Amino acid sequence: MSRTTLNNRTSTTSRSLAVVGLVAAAGLLAGCADDGADAAASDAETATTAEADALAVTDPWTKATDTGMTAAFGEIENDGDADVRIVSATTDASPTAELHTMAEGEDGDMVMTEVEDGFLVPAGGSITLEPGGDHVMIMGVTEAIEPGADVNVTLTLDDGSTLDVVAPARSYSGANESYDEDSGDDADMDHGDMDMDADAS
Cβ atoms within 10 A of the Cβ of 48, count? Predict the structure, then answer.
């Protein structure tokens, strides 16, 4: 066998091995990319559910009502190691639900206002939603919420995760909410004028 023929075979073999090596490397890189994408997706899913998983609601309930307005209450506990902020709420009992609190107005009356930055549940702590304090305001109720009926409330957290709560309706004579509305078909609801009598009778 001539030296030229041997060199040609050696060169061909080297090129074949190089191609195989490149293909293998490309496969490894693709596998790493897929693993990275899967890990990122898993991390995103974990982040989405982490805050909701840290919360638990104890003794949730809603004030029974015929129509108009009512509110949902309960104790919200945070078992996690980071603060969690509740930023909004929705319910199947009405088209509108907001996070509200009560504060003393200039005239000494308790005035209901919307909490625009939401409710902060401290790490390892809890907050209480109760008549005369923080609560989920349910407005525009068109069908009676009878005592014993389940009211579904969904709390949305600042990371986008949600917590579903079933708040059974109870008869309660306090927390008598009322709006001061202007007359006419175009009357607006003024949150600043909404008073709540939180004394049970």
Answer: 14
What's the pLDDT tens digit per position in 21-66? 444 545 544 554 455 555 544 444 444 456 999 999 999 999 999 9
Q: Provide φ and ψ at 151, rounded to 5°.
A: -110, 120
Beta bridge partners of 198: none
SS3 of residue 34 by DSSP: helix
Tokens of 117: 């930055």
Nearest to 49 by CA among 167, 156, 165: 156
How far lies 130's CA from each of 74, 100, 127, 152, 160, in Å?
Answer: 7, 11, 10, 17, 25
Residue linked to tokens 């609190």? 101
The CA–CA distances, whole Å, from 112 to 15, 104, 135 equal 79, 9, 10
> 160: phi > 0 → left, psi -120 to 50 → alpha, else beta; which?
left
133: left (phi over 0), alpha (psi -120 to 50) or beta: beta
Architecture of domain 54-197: Sandwich (2.60)
Tokens of 150: 């389940």
Choose among 161, 172, 190: nearest CA to 130: 172
pLDDT one-digit tens code per residue, 68-92: 999 999 999 999 999 999 999 999 9
